[in-house]
Amino acid sequence: MSRRTEDRGPATPMLTVCRGCCCGRTEKHPDVDHRAQLETLQRAGARVRVVDCLDACERSNVVVVSPTPAGRAAGARPVWLGGVLDEETTAEVVQWVADGGPGVAEPPGFLDIQVFSPSRRTRAEAEL
């Protein structure tokens, strides 16, 4: 994790970005610039943590948007997004972070159709 990521503090949403066996892999998604996508998310104003695998490989690329304290106070929980594979979807994640994320703002554009619910086991193992 870079210092830039660590310095953002809890007042911004956290993005957990899967970059393991399927997500972020050129072998699975050769037309996606995974490095550029990660850099875009890191510049979004959120705290970003990269994890090896979120065990939702059939939904790759997976990004989890965790709410701010204000979002949690409004009842929001982490939102799992699958199929974050193009610039438009990545831009919508960035916009949602700028707007405050879960519990503070509605997902922009068509981002809500990327939302999925992982299994309880997957959620527990991810500790989000």
Question: How would you explain this protein's 3D organization?
Answer:
The chain is of the alpha+beta class. It has a single domain, classed as Glutaredoxin (3-Layer(aba) Sandwich). Helix content is 30%, strand content 15%. The chain contains 5 helices and 5 strands, in the order H-E-H-E-E-H-E-H-E-H. The chain has a 5-stranded mixed β-sheet, covered by helices on one side. The longest helix has 13 residues. The protein is globular, with a radius of gyration of 13 Å. It starts with a helix and ends with a helix.
Topology:
Blueprint lengths: L2 H4 L7 E5 L15 H9 L4 E5 L11 E4 L2 H5 L5 E3 L5 H13 L15 E2 L3 H7 L2
Quick gist of this model?
The chain is built from 5 helices and 5 strands. It has helices spanning 3-6, 34-42, 69-73, 87-99, 120-126, and strands at 14-18, 47-51, 63-66, 79-81, 115-116.
Give structural attributes.
Glutaredoxin, 5-stranded mixed beta sheet, 30% helix, alpha+beta, 128 residues
